[in-house]
Amino acid sequence: xxxxxxxxxxxxxxxxxxxxxxxxxxxxxxxxxxxxxxxxxxxxxxxxxxxxxxxxxxxxxxxxxxxxxxxxxxxxxxxxxxxxxxxxxxxxxxxxxxxxxxxxxxxxxxxxxxxxxxxxxxxxxxxxxxxxxxxxx
Length: 137
Ligand SMILES: *[C@@H]1O[C@H](CO)[C@@H](O)[C@H](O)[C@H]1NC(C)=O
Ligand SMILES: *[C@@H]1O[C@H](CO)[C@@H](O)[C@H](O)[C@H]1NC(C)=O
Prior knowledge:
The chain has one helix at 3-12, and strands at 28-37, 42-44, 53-59, 67-71, 78-79, 88-91, 98-101, 109-119, 122-135.
């Protein structure tokens, strides 16, 4: 199991113990690239409907440390306060997209939305990977 899968599953291990749970090989991976400019804004997608549970993570280029930026685990959508160095971060309520305004140069890197959708056919897990480039304006 790769560390990034553990990142989600380890968080979810507790609440999901009672659910019919999936096989990690059924995780779907969706990759995309995005480019934005310093001072501008960008919206990073996490599916077209709001996931039941999601965690947004960020990995700085040159590191392999995926840190949680935002999640809706527990008390509703929550942005981790310490990420002001990326810009002004908000979550789009209807889709769980991560919106970063007043982008900083440091916002460049890999964003991961690890999302669990509760569907009629059971839990579906999708990992959205978006590589963000931030250009000087
Ligand atoms: C994103 O960019 C990387 C590096 O330039 C490239 O290898 C990859 O194919 C791109 N992915 C998509 C989905 O465009
Ligand atoms: C979600 O809300 C934003 C504005 O907050 C809107 O621009 C967007 O179209 C909405 N998306 C969906 C899927 O309804």
